[in-house]
Amino acid sequence: MKNPLAIIFYIICIVTPFVVVEIHYMQTTYYKATKRLFFTGLLLDKGAYGEYKTYSRLRSYENAGAKFLFNVYLPSTSKYTDTTEIDVLMISDRGVFVFESKNYSGWIFGNDKQKMWTQCLPQGKGRQAIKEKFFNPVWQNNAHIKALRNLIQSNTIPVYSLIVFSERCTLKEISLYNSPNTTVLNRNELNQVVENVYSYALPSLDQGSINTLYSLLLPHSQVSDAVKQQHIEQINSRK
Fold it and tell me: 234, 236, 239: which is closest to 73 by C-alpha?
């Protein structure tokens, strides 16, 4: 029979790193806002994990007074749905950054004039090449921003649209012809893109204004499960 103390020590060595990761994660704004546990919730949800990865790359901006919100359900300006959902939103002294997170893989093709974009998964071992269509994420985020401006009743606050694809994507042919303040990027470029905005844009919001805007939007990130389910059903119905 193996030494019981050795077995206990082995179990502790295996479990401890997972506990440390979970504890560290539970200190983040993302966990406090969403209450998703890391191993039993976040890692099992590809979309949510992409949102967290977007936030985690930018959380240092919290030290400068920026505020983050996640899964913000705003009254929609569309006739097809009652709400529109912003994945990740950052309110900073440079304005509001609206992130549409796409945790995809493969090759991505599209431009801001096309209704549908294309995801291509190349042929692999034992797998045929796959081509999928998905709704133009630039238009999608534009709808989010339109709803946001409608709610905050301001056209003067700078708003930046960032379409964030995972590092597993290759952005093959992406063209933006008429989309100011919009960037389509891989997640590993996120810090540089946001830092570029900070380098050229003048501060437009003081901390009091940031806090006020955050308080206005916070209730829209804490909606009921019924509102979330209705949003999903309306999206699926339109598809």
Answer: 234
Q: 4-26 as b/e, with b when 16 or more CB fall inside 10 Å?
A: eeeeeeeeeeeeeeeeeeeeebe
Structure tokens at 192: 């540089």
Q: What is the pLDDT of residues 52-87, one digit of tens each?
A: 999 999 999 999 999 999 999 999 988 778 899 999
146 Ramachandran zone, left/alpha/beta (phi>0; psi -120 to 50): alpha
Closest CA to 163 of 239, 229, 104, 121: 104
Work out the angle at residue 10's Cα, subtended by the Cα atoms of residues 8 and 13, and round it to the nearest 5 degrees.
110
- CB proximity list for 107: less than 8 A, separation 6 or greater: 119, 120, 121, 122, 169, 170, 172
Q: Which pLDDT tens digit goes with each residue over 85-117?
A: 999 999 999 999 999 999 999 999 999 999 999
Tell me the β-bridge partners of 70. 88
